[in-house]
Structure formats: C-alpha cells, structure tokens
# Entry
Amino acid sequence: MRRPFIAGNWKMNTDSNSGPELVKGIAAGLTDIDSVDVAVIPPFVYIPAAVEAAASSKIAVGAQDMYFEDKGAFTGEISTAMLKDVGCSYVLCGHSERRHVIGETDELINKKVIAAISGGLLPILCVGELLEEREAGKTDEVNERQVKAGFAGLSADKAAAVTIAYEPVWAIGTGVTATPDQAQEVHAKIRKLVAELYDENLASQMRIQYGGSAKPGNAAELMSQPDIDGLLVGGASLKAEDFLGIINASA
Ligand code: PGA
# Structure
C-alpha cells in the first residue's frame, strides 16, 4: 500500500514572515491526519525558518533544487550536505521550470538524483511533456525519456528512494488540470516503465505524484485514480487553508 504524499512547492514565493506562518498554519491543521506524508518546499533561504516552524509537527521540508558536486568552486550552488545540514529530507530534481526556464538537461538531472540519494536526501524526480509535445503525440516518448534518464545508473535499492512527479507542463500554473483519466493513463505507463527498468515489486511501491493546477476541488478525484499516489502542489500550497484542503481530500 502506497502512502499518499502531498508536497507544496512554494517556488520563488513567500518571505521570512509568511513562510514560517504558512508552515505553522499547515501544522495546526494536520493534528488529526496520520495517513498522509506532507512536505513543504520553500526557497533555499527560508528553509531553516521552515524547518524550525515545522519542528514537532508532521511536516517534512524539502528543497527546490541542488547541485551534484559535494563542495568547491560552484558559485551560487547548494550541495546535498548543506541541505541535510539545515534539516531537509526531500529535494526536487528536474522540475519543469528548471528544465524549460533554466535549461537543465536530462544528464544534469540524473547527476542530481544520484547525488541526492548518495547524500541521504529523497529526490522527487519531475517529468512531464510540453503542450506541443502532447499535441504532436509525443507524451509517452517524452515521459519515457525523462524517467529513463532520471534513473540511469541507479541500482534498485537506490531507485527505491525516488518519488516521481508527473507534471504535464501545460497544466502547471495555468489553471488547466489534466483530467483524472489523462493523468492516470500516464501514471500507469510510468509505473510499467519502472517495472521494466527494475521489477514489479519496486514499481508497486514507488510513489508517483501528479502536479499541475492541483487544488482542493480536484484533489479527491485525482487521488482516487489507482496510480496517483500524491500531489505536487504549486499555487495552492501557498495558502494553509487550500493546502490543508488538498491534504484532507487525499487522506
Ligand atoms: P501549480 O504548480 O500547482 O501551480 O500548477 C505545480 C508545480 O509546478 O509543481
């Protein structure tokens, strides 16, 4: 049985007041919910404050990105050890905004996934097709390529640390959500691919989140799909009430 996993990706939002307040608001609403894993993913500089605000709550804290090298002359970058040091447990790898706005490649993202696991973080590997790729009938091809590349060189015991997030790029921040059927279709294909890359057992345990305009009103229907195990939430994770609505709908 896969435990639902709801993560809030704050992107480049919040500040030193609103970040910890958001965490406290979420924590206050979580006291009766035991069946869902919850994480918040603030901008780097607000991670320590979020960790402090999340202390003695059920909320884990993640980072939006990392660099694969341990340390050294990499101006502007953040290592796995640094993230562990400030209390992170998760890290996003290959979010679509990193792929398509910043220009990260499959190879770079793979290095990050490998480094995250070696350093004791739990990567959330994000994959998903652009609108033009879906319209050109390339949805499966793109997701297959991104998943295969993301897991390249990972043994099964290491791969087990990964959560996959399927986020169709056309649904991110647009208010357009993939229908539950559209999402389920891709999730099932991704799980089958994981079984081919590793085995059925690992595939049946791997959590696959959906992301893209998830909100309280569509969370239950998305989560009712057999292969949707969680949600990676952007916009609706910035208000405690909305994020809690999504968590409640997933419990
Ligand atoms: P959204 O973002 O919920 O605002 O669409 C999701 C994401 O990018 O993870």
Notes: The CA atoms of residues 152 and 249 lie 34 Å apart.
